[in-house]
Design goal:
129 residues; mainly alpha; 6 helices; 74% helix; 0% strand; MROH2B-like_N_HEAT; Maestro_heat-like_prot; MROH1 protein
């Protein structure tokens, strides 16, 4: 997974495809490996983090019926936290666009998802002056 930091888009695409391919035969193993890698590399640049997150999303979508309930719950929470962190980081430069997207998740009469609220709060903190 270290190759995700390669600047060549073709290499990045190959890593994504390889993770997805491996995820077809061993979805839980790949999801756990990606999760572990992201935890160990918490300073990984966001474009490279996104490659791994997208691969995780694809593996989950393609194998949802095969996943153990506890694995799915753990991975989904970690994935949502990582996605929230990406939005907050992008929001430090493009706050208006990110806020537009986050605000679309607020629907009248419906309690927003926990991670929507957390993202909204973290955007406020990271951009408050």
């Amino acid at each position: 997974m270290d190759a995700t930091t390669d600047k060549d888009p073709l290499v990045q695409e190959q890593i994504y495809n390889a993770l997805c391919y491996l995820g077809e035969s061993e979805p839980e193993e790949i999801l756990n490996s990606c999760d572990e890698y992201l935890r160990q590399h918490d300073k990984l640049a966001y474009p490279h983090r996104v490659i791994i997150l997208k691969a995780m999303e694809t593996v989950v979508k393609n194998n949802i019926a095969l996943l153990d309930k506890s694995t799915a719950k753990e991975v989904i929470q970690d994935w949502q936290q990582a996605a929230s962190n990406v939005l907050v980081a992008v929001g430090q430069r493009f706050i208006n666009k990110v806020m537009e997207e986050v605000l679309t998740k607020f629907q009248p009469g419906i309690l927003p998802h926990y991670f929507v609220m957390q993202t909204f709060a973290n955007l406020s903190v990271s951009n408050g002056e």
